[in-house]
């Protein structure tokens, strides 16, 4: 029992250390992206022979290195401290340990299957990371039908026809008549 408490305390401490280190970590930007619009800000590894960022010259922004790495205990964990597990169906949901793991529904899962997975997760008392409360499909369909009915009842607006513009030949003829 004390081993579990010690490991949980170590995990919480490591999460705090990771959060503190993350605040100090700079935003790594592509060298000279501030100088040229053609360069995106997103990081690209400098490979040039004389590149100042690659050579770690003082006064130039830092590049990513192993010194910014988090501790082994918490590397790859969700910010809540749980291990993130990707779920595609109910069978994968059944394999999750609620004490140490948290479910993340894959982006390829549709709305109907997503609702089934969330309902099953509630029964198993599992946490789901990327779930927003949505209405049930039956309620949504009823709302769509109501909007269709209201559109039918609305009076149709009369569309006025615009006067067609005179053709170029007619314009030229009028200009010629005015000159004479």
Please, could you describe this protein's structure?
It contains 5 helices and 2 strands. By secondary structure, the protein is mainly α. It has 2 domains: 1-69, no CATH class; 76-150, no CATH class. The protein is flat. The model has no long low-confidence stretch (mean pLDDT 83).
| First-to-last CA distance | 110 Å
Query: How many structural domains?
Result: 2
Helix count from the secondary structure assignment: 5
Order of helices and strands: HEHEHHH
Task: Assign an overall shape.
Answer: flat
Number of strand elements: 2
Percent of residues in helical segments?
Answer: 25-40%
What is this entry, summarized?
The chain is mainly alpha-helical and 180 residues long. The chain has five helices and two strands. The termini are far apart.
Topology readout:
Layout: H1 2-24, E1 83-87, H2 90-94, E2 101-105, H3 111-123, H4 137-153, H5 168-179
Parallel strand pairs: 1-2
List keywords for this structure.
180 residues; two-stranded parallel sheet; flat; 2 domains; mainly alpha
């Amino acid at each position: 029992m004390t081993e579990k408490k010690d490991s949980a305390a170590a995990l919480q401490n490591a999460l705090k250390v990771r959060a503190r280190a993350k605040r100090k970590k700079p935003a790594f930007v592509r060298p000279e992206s501030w100088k040229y619009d053609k360069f995106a800000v997103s990081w690209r590894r400098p490979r040039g022979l004389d590149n100042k960022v690659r050579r770690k010259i003082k006064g130039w922004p830092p590049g990513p290195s192993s010194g910014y790495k988090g501790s082994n205990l918490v590397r790859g964990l969700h910010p809540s401290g749980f291990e993130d597990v990707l779920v595609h169906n109910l069978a994968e949901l059944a394999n999750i340990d609620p004490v140490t793991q948290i479910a993340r529904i894959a982006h390829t899962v549709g709305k109907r299957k997503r609702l089934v997975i969330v309902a099953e997760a509630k029964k198993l008392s599992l946490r789901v990371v990327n779930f927003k409360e949505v209405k049930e499909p039956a309620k949504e369909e009823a709302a769509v039908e109501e909007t269709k009915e209201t559109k039918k009842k609305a009076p149709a607006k009369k569309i006025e026809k615009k006067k067609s513009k005179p053709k170029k030949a007619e314009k030229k003829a009028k200009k010629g008549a005015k000159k004479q």
